[in-house]
Structures are given as C-alpha cells and as structure tokens.
Amino acid sequence: MNRPTTLSRVLDRRTRALLRYLPGAAVGDDKAVHQSRVASRRLREAVPVLAYGLRGTRAGKARKKIRRLTRALGTVRELDVTIHVLGELGDRPGTPRPALGDVRAHVLEERERRRAVMLERLAEIDPAKLTRRLGTVRTALMQPNRGHEWRKLLGGRIAKRAKRLSRAIKEAGQIYAPEPLHRVRIAAKKLRYALELAGESRAAQTTTLVRTLKRAQDTLGRLHDLQVLQHHVADVAAAPHPPHAGRGAPDAGLGILSRLIEDDCRHLHARYIAMLPALTEAAERAGHDVAVRVSVARRSRPVKMEARAGRAAANGSVRRRAAGGRR
Length: 327
Hints:
The structure is a single chain. By secondary structure, the protein is mainly alpha-helical. The chain has helices at 6-26, 30-50, 59-90, 97-123, 127-142, 150-172, 178-200, 207-238, 250-295, 301-326.
C-alpha cells in the first residue's frame, strides 16, 4: 500500500473541509454556507496545481464541479454578510431605525430569493461523484509520473498574481474609488490563496506574507461589504413605493444611513493607505523570492539514495584496495 505524500495530504485536508460543511450548506445553514464557500475556493485553488502533469486524473471535471459550487454559494453568502453589517449598525447610537428596518426587509427578501436558487443548484451537485473525481487525483499523487511539474505551475501563478497585485495597487493609488480598491482586494485574495498552497505543500515558507495579505484583504473586504450595503440603501431609496410611505420622511433616514456607511468606508480606506508599504513589499517579495523558490524542484529521495549508494560503493572499493595493500 502506498504511503500518503505531502501533496496527497494537502488534497485530503481540503477535500474533507468541503465535505464536512456541504451537508449544512445544502439545507441553508448560514455558517455552513460560509465555511463551504471558503473550503471550495481553497480546493479549487489546489486541484489544478496538484494535478498539473499527472496522467489519468479527472481533475478538470472536478474543478468545474467545484467552481459551480463556489458560485452557487456566493450570492447568498454576500447577503448574509450584509445582514450582519446591518445588525452591527443597529447597535450604534444615531442610526435611524426605520430606515435600517426598510433596508433589512429589502435584503431579507432578496436573500430568500437567492437562497431558493442556491438550494436548487446545490441539489444538482453529487458529493459522491465529486469525491470519486478527486480520488483519481489522489491516486495519481501517490505515484506521480514524470512531467508532474506542479512547482513550475505554482511558481508561475505566484509570480503572475504578485505582478497583478502590484499593478492593481499602483492603479488604485491613494484615491478613494470603489472599483480600483475592489480589484486590489481580489488580487490580494488570489495571491494569498497561491501562497497558502505553497506553504501547505512545503514548497516555501509563506506565513509572514500570508498574514500581511490577510490583513489587507480583511480591511478591503469590510470596505467592500459596506459598499454593497450602500447599493441596497440606494435601491430602497429609489423604490417607487417605500415600505413605510405614510410614516414620515423615510428618505431622510436613508440619507443619514448612507452617510454613516460612507464615513466608515473613508476610515477603512485610511487604514488601507497605512498598510500600503507593507502590502507593496509583500507583493514584491512574493513575485521575486517566493516564486523563484517554489519553481525550483527539490532533489527527490531516489536521487539522494542513489548518491548515498554511490558513495558507499566508492568507500567499499577504497577499503578493499587498502586491505589488498596490507596483505
């Protein structure tokens, strides 16, 4: 029986994480939806890299199935976050409660609609079939063939994503603009996923860089969540028949709510600006140092054993000649 390898263990851990939370997500549990989405993204990152150059796998079909799963979970998860942010705003003094209630009702209605679509899509995904497809990758990882150049692919990904992050940072500059900042967030997230895989596969030490990217991603992620909420506030304000039309002036409350959200966005942007030197340096280090280190293949164990055998044979020959001389 073949022993598990480092790469097969990486695949096993990420597969188990997805299968652990998928049943809960299939019935709409909020926490399970979030954890399943995170696990599906991490597995989707790993499969094409680990399977690169392996023969006899069904990695392509597995990846397509995982991508469909991530997309199905994504729309509902975004609204779950929006509801959570609304709850936080409700705990703050000065927040207009009627306007908050209107927006919450709007978001909940949209969430229920998306939840129905999500559950329908999740029902179409067969976990057993996905497990079998991933199993073909695991089997191939136990005895990799020549041409399994996963390091080359991962190193190239890290270099490309680091370059993309550096470019996004430069294009965003220090001006508060949602779209360029969103591109920085996405670029940082994708680079972090690649670096996490490099660290977990022991291709390189990436803990410090991952931590820097995670801090920036969390800040920009919170900023993005607030911007999504702003869109919902605008949708409620633009509705032809506000939910509480006879109650007074709901538009005034929505305006106050929008300004509160905008203030939070500005504060988060200032925090991001303070992170820029560290984030820029992390992108540079990833693109140069880590990408090169990951791409260089280590000498395999058989090569080391052959070298030891060669040295042993040479030493044995020397000892025999010495013994012959003594005779």
